[in-house]
Amino acid sequence: MNVLDAYNWWKFLHILGVLAFVMFHGVSAVVAFRLRKERDRTRIAELLQFSGTSIQGMYVSLGVLILFGVVAGFAGDWWRFWWIWISLGLLVATLAVMYVVARPYYQQLKDAIQLRPSGVPRRSDEELDQIMRSSASTLTIAWGTAALIIIAWLMIWKPTWQV
Predict the structure, then answer these.
(1) pTM here?
(2) Which of 24, 70, 73, 137 qualifies as a FRET site for 16, CA 20 to 30 Å off?
(3) CB 116 within 8 A of CB 122
(4) Sequence ranges of the domains in the chain
(5) Is pLDDT of 1 > 80?
(6) How far apart are CA 15 and CA 33, in angstroms?
(7) How many C-beta atoms surround the C-beta of residue 21 within 10 A?
(8) Beta-carbon-side half-sphere exposure of residue 47 (alpha carbons within 13 Å)
């Protein structure tokens, strides 16, 4: 197998990781859109639980896309170009945004729909509505989508700016 064939296999595996990541994480994105209109606590809990079912696949596919992206970067000798570093930086920044914005928001939402032992909700309907109207889900969806588009552009056009 020549170097180009090896590179194409690594790139193929990287793209499969990207596709799997988008598929698994797409579940959470759809749930985020649905949650914006939902106010029934039981339905909110069901949607959050459904979203949670995709998390393991999302993290595994994220690992696959990173691993094979790094390997393909070496096989294709791309590490001397800015586009791969910008792509990696955007991925890290996106992970940070999701950790700092999305994770606390969904944790706050999970806490808000819980019932006390007496059967009374931990948060009032007004408090729940305020949490649900937060811009956190919109911000994370917009950021993640923009980052994905920019990374795809960089990977396809591979600007030749060198490090």
Answers:
(1) 0.91
(2) 137
(3) yes
(4) 3-157
(5) no
(6) 26
(7) 21
(8) 21
pLDDT (0 to 100) of residue 50: 97
pLDDT digits (tens, 9 = 90+) for 36-73: 899 999 999 999 999 999 999 999 999 999 999 999 99
DSSP state string for the chain? --HHHHHHHHHHHHHHHHHHHHHHHHHHHHHHHHHTT---HHHHHHHHHHHHTTHHHHHHHHHHHHHHHHHHHHHTT-TTBHHHHHHHHHHHHHHHHIIIIIHHHHHHHHHHH-B-TTS-BSS-HHHHHHHHT-SHHHHHHHHHHHHHHHHHHHHHH----B-
What is the Cβ-side half-sphere exposure of residue 90, based on CA atoms within 13 angstroms?
19
Which tokens hold the place of 17?
């990781």
The Cα–Cα gap between 51 and 136 comes to 16
- Paired tokens of 69: 């992206």
Query: Rounded to whole angstroms, how far apart are CA atoms 38 and 45?
Result: 10
Are residues 140 and 101 in contact, defined by beta-carbon separation less than 8 angstroms? yes
Task: State how far Cα 15 lies from the chain centre.
Answer: 16
68, 124 contact by CB (below 8 A): no
pLDDT at residue number 3: 77
Half-sphere exposure of 124 (CA within 13 A, CB side): 3
Is the pLDDT assigned to residue 113 strictly greater than 80? Answer: yes
